[in-house]
Amino acid sequence: MRVKSKLGRRKNKAKSKLSSHKKTNKHKKAPFYCYCRTRARDTEFMIQCDGCDIWYHGSCVELREEEADIIDKYFCPPCRTEHGPIILKNRRTIQRLDYREINEGTSSHDSEKLGFIHHLKNKKFLSQDDVLIYLTGNELTENYLSTNGFSKPILVRSLEGLGMRVPPSDLTIQDIERYVGSLRELEVIDTLKQTDFKLKMGEWTRYFKELDRKHILNVISLEVSNTELGDIITPPKIVREFDWVACYWPESKDLPHNWFLSKPQVQKYCLMSVQGSYTDFHIDFGGSSVWYHPIKGKKIFYLIEPTDTNVKKYERWSSSHYQSNTFFGDVVDKCYQCEINAGETMFIPTGWIHAVYTPIDSIVFGGNYLTKFNIPLQLKVYNIERNLDTPAKFLYPNYETLYWLAGDQLLQEVNSRYYLYLM
């Protein structure tokens, strides 16, 4: 791979091959031309494909000059069909994590955290049969929720009747990389420390494929709505019928010219977890409900009902100095253990406090949504987040705006029904 910087320098000392270029791909005729069919200028960053030797403007292939520094072999979009995704240099980012404190036993908090994760299987929990509602996809309807409400988790054993579309079970991490791009930046959670850092998708693929992993890392926040992967995902029909974003956020063509807020993208997440991953107790942002569907592996949930007492205890625990070495399930009276396997779909309602353990490598698709059910609890969770000074990146995007939009529409619906009643 060679690049041409904005100052006209080539960052590779190899002799230019532009004049003697041998065409190995027919999707372009001239090596110095890009998609836009214009020649390079000294003020433009360009990169040469290692598959066809054609030069591309960074802006035309959505690549920044600083990103080129971590690329070992660059393949343009047409060449990726034959050669696969972009290959990144081995930055050894994961190996640079400082685990000396853990290995030397000098960090008691992290050691205790690791300890209770290892002892989860020896703890006693209430059965999932005491808390889950089991339905078929055909039974989970708008009429069912309107009649019975949505206050307990629901488990559906198969896709039938859900009106949902997800990738097939043979989807691989390499496939996900091809869909979202090797340079897509991921928030990666270090299970032991419960802290996060960033990796490129290509680096994550390399880590996930390792047979002897030194560290347990987890990706739970890759939102894929605006990617090719998002194009083959459709949330369950029942979610689309109640999701405020789907129902009330205006389409682009209907927005005023001075509208500057982006549509919340929280409906389609791809979660990639290795064996031993653990996400500590939390409430999903803004009190949003969740749909959750593993296509590979399995997950074990530890569920706690959001009673007033439990929510108060959760808020105290979240802001305490002992959070990192205290299993919140031991703080409350009832904690349920629920197992969800590949092919099953769980629906978690507003406010449920939960932790998640991954017993085997897993790939999961899911999403968040706000609904007309449990509005007071949704707002209560939002206030808790504000009280805890939750960073913006962990908040439901444009939350208050969505409430105004939903409130306006719901008021119109109520007025319409009242008008019909008077008639």
Total E-strand runs? 17
Helix/strand order: EEEEHEHHEEHEHEEHEHHEEEHEEEHH
Q: What is the overall number of helices?
A: 11
Low-pLDDT residue spans? 7-31, 92-112
Q: How helical, in percent, are the residues?
A: 10-25%
User: Using only CA atoms, what is the Rg?
Assistant: 25 Å
Query: Which class best fits the helix and strand makeup?
Result: alpha+beta
* Rough outline: globular
**Proportion of β residues?**
15-25%
Would you tell me the overall average pLDDT? Answer: 84
Distance between the termini: 73 Å
Largest sheet: 12 strands, mixed
Main traits of this protein?
single chain; 423 residues; 24% helix
Could you explain how this protein is built, in words?
It is a single chain. The chain is 24% helix and 22% strand. Helix 5 runs antiparallel to helix 6. The N and C termini lie far apart (73 Å). The chain is globular, with a radius of gyration of 25 Å. Residues 7-31 and 92-112 have low confidence and may be disordered. With 423 residues, the chain is an alpha+beta fold. The longest helix has 24 residues, at 399-422. It has 11 helices and 17 strands.
Can you describe this structure in just a few lines?
This protein has 423 residues and is α+β, with helices and mostly antiparallel strands. Helix content is 24%, strand content 22%. It has 11 helices and 17 strands.
List the helices and strands and how they pair.
Elements: E1 3-4, E2 46-48, E3 55-57, E4 71-73, H1 80-83, E5 87-88, H2 100-103, H3 108-118, E6 126-127, E7 133-135, H4 142-148, E8 154-156, H5 173-180, E9 185-190, E10 195-200, H6 201-209, E11 217-223, H7 237-242, H8 244-248, E12 269-273, E13 278-282, E14 289-304, H9 308-318, E15 336-341, E16 345-348, E17 353-369, H10 375-387, H11 399-422
Helix pairs in contact: 5-6
